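Quick one, T. Sequence first:
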Amino acid sequence: MSYPGYPPSGGYPAFPGYPPTGQESVYPPAGQYSYPTVPGGYPPAGGGTYPAAPPSAGYPGAAGYPAPGGYPAPGGYPGAPQAGGMPPYPAAPTGPGFGMPPAGPGFGGYPQPPAQSYAGGGPAQIPVGYPGGQASSPVPSPPAAMVQCTQGTIQAAPNFDAGRDAEILRKAMKGFGTDEQAIINVVANRSNDQRQKIKEAFKTMYGKDLIKDLKSELSGNVEELILALFMPSTYYDAWSLRHAMKGAGTQERVLIEILCTRTNQEIREIVNCYKSEFGRDIEQDIRGDTSGHFERLLISMCQGNRDENQTVDYQKAQEDAQRLYQAGEGKLGTDESCFNMVLASRSFPQLKATAEAYSRIANRDLLSSIDREFSGNVERGLKTILQCALNRPAFFAERLYYSMKGAGTDDSTLIRIIVTRSEIDLVQIKQMFTQMYQKTLASMIASDTSGDYRRLLLAIVGQ
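Structure tokens:
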């Protein structure tokens, strides 16, 4: 599969000594992409396209992605390129900031919910008493240098009236039967912040808890999806992590998906929310549920201390690439701590430059080397970080594809990604999904789900 514009026509500049002194670059250029003051206001209508890739940012051109036959088997993701050839992971659109949420209200303190109930298997049991109706407290906007042209499929509804929406939901659930379509029309067309205001208005107007009413009227996957949409974003991530570690067994892919892809600010808010809501220390839970190099990687992620300076230091990229080569392909055995140090601390654009330098040193792309040097969960964690540095929407597109591929559907993963990316970059994820798999995300959802669950997913994704 080919990805337009890669590799750049002139190839990669030679290291060391690139770029010439004084010509280091910052992506995106200061002031190029201003963030909207109004939720949902960026990019403009008809937007959703990426800025043109700068020549120095190109990742080499196309080859076999994704690996056939299911979520990458050990040793099978992706195939090693020919000497000097291309890394098979899709090249990222320009810029470092994928995954930054739109500037706007965050989620501060939450009231302590009652004891949680988590069941193994089947739809996740969403707690009844999670935060409801709390006024959001403002959080700082992301630095201008980290803002990227991303777009969610859900944007804040204009002329929003929380009381009117609360009344619609009350009528939909009152009496015999439930008007699921009326519920879908509201929740799929309101931002998360607006849904919090609807919960508050519902309790004010009717003296009842909206979440309890919804749980009594709904069931199965559509219940899990609607209740996830009503969770404040930070709380939903914290709840997902707690659910992944509570009880017998651990859902390591959930830990990787959340902790290895979020920004520093998001990580710190998740860690604080985990403590305030569940009365537990997330690091202690991770140590109790994981071990070895995978445990160390997740503990590193929990610090929320990744360098987020968007200026690329090409000399450091060359040095890190050489260090990684000597820690893996260039020696007998693997120095795992070296990989942990570089991938856990460097900024995403810096990691992208390091991957480009590595492919010139090793005649093999860095993803393939991680494949060869690691296995199991630590391999998946390291590759997730690198994939997000190269192309974050492609990582989530891949996760969505494998949640539906083959017999059965991993509904919790499907719900979690659709909900958490719906206001951030789901437009770009849809574009990458089509590019990578020659089918639309909506068509795969339609063929893999049914009923109100399918209707709500499609309403969120958009056609």
